[in-house]
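USER: Write out one fold?

ASSISTANT:
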Amino acid sequence: MNKRFFYWFIISIAVAQVFAVEMIHFQEQTYSGSVTYNEKAQPGDAVFVRLSLKFDGAVRKETLKNPAAILQLFKGKERAATAQFFFTHPKNRSAETADMLAGIPLSTWLSGEETYSLKVIISTGDAQKKEITLPFGIQKKQFVSERIVLDARNTGIRKDASPERRAQIEKLNAILATVTPQDVYTLKPFTIPVDSKRITSGFGDRRVFEYTDKKTSTSLHYGIDYGVPTGTPVHSCAEGKVVLAENRISTGWSVVIEHLPGLYSLYYHMDSLNVQEGQYVKQGEKLGLSGATGLATGPHLHWEIRLNMEAVNPEFFLKEFSF
């Protein structure tokens, strides 16, 4: 099958699929609430759960200052991942209500043949912990495999073991590992960062790199590549704070934006930047121009999303992921 047609075919199916949303209500002695979540996902997607609580007015407010909750993903009886809920409006939170959100990334290696479930554990001061078990399913997904032959320049970049490159990797990893509960910049669906839907490499592609000495290495493609000419405007997919804006050995001119606690968007191989670290940007704001800097075999924009450090399919966030 033609690779470009394959991407169009897969994307058409993904868009056509219903984003299955489930809502469950519950009642406790001192509070009531609901959980809303996507009950199905594909490998490489994420699962998000929105938790809404309303407390009895007769309960002392002192006991409600710090309601907390955690989200757990189980594969069979084994706990596979955990995430902490954060308040969706931390600066304008009512004492009588609490609205929280948590997300867990789903590895591209997960199998739809396994049995999965979710557990929400709620703590509300003087009340006993409440546990809610949620059914959850992972659908099957086919990923593309491709072989990429590198020239001498790109072979050198892939094999670069210099202190400078290691320092750049460590700096980026430290940023992506940062989870700041009060940093809630947007709850809206994301938008694609360029005015083009021409995808040349998809998320989760299984890649084999061939070097000039004919040796090879394998890796996963962590984002989506849009085949756009050098100089194409690149826009922020959502509101947030620029936490990295610099030229890197592997990814060229690069921008990283924080959107939610632990949720970041990344833009690689750009030709020039219009933003700087610490700057706040709106959805659709121009970040710079696309290019072919760093490890690139031609002009394109690499767009990537990281949740709790793990790469997640950016197309997942084009939907109402926060409910």
Notes: The helical segments are 3-16, 152-158, 163-176. The chain has three helices and 23 strands.
